[in-house]
Design a protein that fits this description.
Number of strands of chain A: 11
Strand order of the largest sheet of chain A: 1-8-3-6
Number of domains of chain A: 2
CATH architecture of the largest domain in chain A: Sandwich
Number of helices of chain A: 7
Helix content of chain A: 40-55%
CATH superfamily of the largest domain in chain A: Jelly Rolls
Shape of chain A: elongated
CATH topology of the largest domain in chain A: Jelly Rolls
Oligomer: homodimer
Radius of gyration of chain A: 18 Å
Strand content of chain A: 15-25%
Distance between the termini of chain A: 24 Å
Chain lengths: ~200, ~200
DNA sequence: ATTTTCTTGTGATTGAAATCATATCGGGTG
DNA sequence: CACCCGATATGATTTCAATCACAAGAAAAT
């Protein structure tokens, strides 16, 4: 859990319900709110001219998102789109800064989150630069597993569609499918009803 | 300038001189210090099994580096190597945290730096995923120019070797050379004595 | 229940960057 | 000054992911 919901509500944060597929904010837009996901699923994506998506992050309940412009005052670095019907809680930027000033412990927790996200980018960037699909996918899945991100609530394994893996790595679906078959043959993962469990 | 040097010295920070090529700390190593570059140049790199380097960042005087593990308590995400003879100033991790607690303004400035670095990773990651060398190089150089990073002190243009660009983008030198010749022919940059000015 | 859409799946072809080879240039060093 | 090394330069070849084409299964929408 990022920031306690009661704390946010006390300061005047408001709930917002978004439908599946709804755009919460757009890349390049200006930012006036701190966002935290209460329930559902939100993906953080860059969409290019041909409509293809690069997934920067898949946000789970309790996590914040869109935090970059809260500090550097630039535009949003990526769009946020609801994967499923979701509830988010929003706090106005100025109140958010007030909160950080009053609660150094929350500010520190925030710095930790930013560090973790930066570390994830370091890892993935290094891996993408190597142009080795098998290593890239393996590193991504291992990282997610180690950080309990995008894990199936029932079986405790990382659960992503191959399309999502493709969109997180810049590889094509076909390449991901073929590469994962390799990993599957080596017994490093389970494919059940088409879905990947790592 | 990141943190005022006098503030650091008052808290007990110490100077350290490193020779060109010297490794300041190694990837995967544990972190006990806040690092800030006083003079010289430091590159922040991942080195793979075959010895090829991926440059995460080229640090200039006044900037901090190696800050990720200060917050998430993991190992260093990359190695720091001095490009030229450099002077760094180091503050013990515990004292650094004490400083942040005492000086919310410094903590906030730090959050801003982290945001900017995270944003840079977002931009580059999205670009690498597209597999378009010309766009990747153009985006990298435009970003650096916009943020006045790695800019020539005399002519105010971004100044990098093509090898460095290759190491920052995961492209091969030959590809960068060929691509930049294109950009040069289009008049978008200047090549002088082999060096690139954008 | 049926249509539509998204995802998986697989083979054939292509294209662009990686790789290999080799040479030259320029800065720094002993 | 001569030497060396890193960076630039360029052509030839290779390789492997992208692309194309097409099919079928699963899930969501109507």
């Amino acid at each position: 859990m990022m920031i306690d919901i009661d704390v946010l509500l006390t300061l005047g944060a408001t709930y917002k319900k978004v439908a599946a597929g709804e755009v919460i904010y757009n890349e390049e837009g200006l930012c006036s709110f701190y966002h935290q996901l209460v329930s559902g699923s939100v993906r953080w994506v860059n969409i290019d001219d041909n409509g293809s998506e690069f997934i920067q992050n898949i946000i789970e309940p309790g996590e914040c998102f869109g935090e970059i412009p809260l500090f550097d005052d630039g535009p949003y670095a990526a769009s946020a789109i609801a994967d499923t019907e979701s509830v988010i809680i929003r706090l106005h930027k100025s109140l958010f800064h007030q909160l950080l000033a009053e609660r150094p412990d929350i500010h520190m927790a925030f710095s930790k989150i930013m560090s973790e996200r930066l570390r994830f980018k370091f890892v993935l960037l290094k891996e993408l630069a190597h142009h080795d699909p098998e290593k890239t996918i393996n590193t991504l899945l291992t990282y997610l597993k180690g950080n309990k991100k995008n894990v199936c609530t029932i079986c405790n394994k990382v659960k992503l569609t191959r399309q999502q893996i493709a969109n997180m790595t810049g590889l094509r679906v076909e390449t991901v499918i073929r590469t994962m078959r390799h990993l599957h043959d080596k017994g490093e993962l389970v494919i059940d009803k088409g879905k990947v469990y790592f």
